[in-house]
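Shapes recur. One chain:

:::
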Amino acid sequence: MVQATGREHPETGGMPVNDLSEDQAARELAWLAAQLQAANTAYHRDDAPDISDADYDALKQRNAAIEAQFPELKRADSPSEVVGGAIAEGFGKVQHVVRMLSLGNAFSDDEVTEFDQRIRKYLGLPDDAPLAYTAEPKIDGLSLSLRYEDGTLVQAATRGDGAVGENVTANARTIADIPQQLRGAPDVLEVRGEVYMSHADFAALNERQKVAGAKTFANPRNAAAGSLRQLDAEITKSRPLRFFAYAWGDLSAPLAETQSAAIARLAALGFSTNPLTVTCDGPDQLIAHYTQIEEQRANLGYDIDGVVYKVDDLALQRRLGFRSTTPRWAIAHKFPAELAWTVLEAIDIQVGRTGALSPVARLRPVTVGGVVVSNATLHNEDYIAGRGGDGNPIREGRDIRVGDWVQVYRAGDVIPKIKDVDLGRRPDDARPYAFPDVCPECQSAAIREAGDAVRRCTGGMICPAQAVEKLKHFVSRAAFDIEGLGAKQVEQFYSDGWITTPADIFTLRDRFGTGLQQLKNREGWGEKSASNLFDAIDDKRQISLARLIYSLGIRHVGENSATLLANHYGTWAAFEQAMTQATVGSGPAWDDLIAIDGVGAVMATSVITTLQQEAERDSIDRLVAALDVQAAQAVATDSPVAGKTVVFTGTLERMTRAEAKARAEALGAKVSGSVSAKTDILVAGPGAGSKATKAAELGVETMDEDAWLALIGTA
């Protein structure tokens, strides 16, 4: 079994995700998948976790960050789509009627506030509107689902992989906290909660194990999970297991209208519920309760690793719904991982694809939460200087200098961060760090635009770091995806001077001729492999418009944004002409561009500026001349609004704008922010103004919200 140690990838060493090449990212994702699969197996199936929760969270966060940067590399076995682990042999399988999902995590107060803001935005609630949550300790145990029919316990199952769990009914019947019969319960009631073991019971069990010469357990969670999953129920019966109920799955009738009332109903039915569960109004009260629980943590008598927040109103929970593996209406606020102090030995500057100068702390190696850390992010020059993004002091204005003793922390972050500085141990010769105003790679000016937190190299393609990273992006899987031409080959060819711009890739065969001598004589190449590469390049001369736009590496334009642009303009000629004629900030072409739902002023400015830069445009024109760019294809579905352009205006009363947009796009419609001759349907709620007037002038079909819901079949 691959040992999931929580250590950084041996090749990338926790380097910033933006600086990973495609090949490095792919290799690290494979490594992360193996690490996390092993950790899941050890934790969920074998009840013998070999990494800490903080290390596990850090690996998950790293995996998510790489997938966000390289969505085309997301694996079929991606850990981000996995809940729990495989079931153990020896137990029958139970198909969960309602999947048992995991929770998203928050590691700071700001992330809790962002969670609240996301919910308010989705539901269309103003910042000052009341929004109640429940807050409860996150028990560090084993998830269990109990199914009651006509008041009788008929089945108990572990979470397993979220869809299928292990049948542990006989074992669950031996736990005193689990009622065998219920009075006044719905005909079908699936109660969910956590099996755990108290600290005192754990110590007593281990002492008995020692006396008997049997295996001792590493922690209460392992002891609880191992005890519940015994093939002999008599062994389970001898173990002091407990159970807290906190949720439900399949129901024949609702328990209540709110989360808090439903928990009270479970308590009235005879289940143990956590006494520290409270109802809070807004993030400030949530965070205050989190602090109170954290202060009590050592005295609770059982293990917890955070606090879970849930929207209290169950109707709102239903509206918010679920992502692939987590509910939108809940989050786990995890307790921080271990902190450590060490010496900052150097600050290095790395240059990314967009020219961003990213400072990286080189640390005297130190163990943080069981992991040896030697690198940490320093974010940007303001962070080093002791200033926040708003210009106000952070760390009480303490700057960071080479030679300082710094406090390092890992709390699920992609890479470690520096939290604080010990001025009392600052060397006498330590000097304020002077952030470079020239690129360390090409010596071009590194400027910081107004409103931007990052300083960027202005060298463009003459900067080796940017040029190589842009070329790697160009051949990445979501772009041209040329077989045999990956990050390693790009670096080699750039170093040899064979390719400096994307267009050079498509002239390689002509420049090398049929003899292929220059390439086939290189290490790792032969005549066959060289010929295969040239054929693979030729195969990619036909490319979709969306892939072409994405491949250009325009700042702020990702894969989804490229698709939006391609679908809107249809052809390269139309896109190129519009960007050439556009003026940033005004004019018909500008208005048309920012009217695309999902395209804002920042992205629009970046696209126009790129297409109007002389050197960049020359490179793009030479590239396009070598290609056959395919026009965008309309989304084909059987829905009545597939391929149609829809605009929503006024106040929607039965759904929020976000919900309406999501439903329309799921049915193949294009949602725009403004009415034009291309608009097919205007959905107008109360308060519709100029858009309704313009639609009438253009003869655009206009309907109210009820008619729209009837049309799409969800009235």
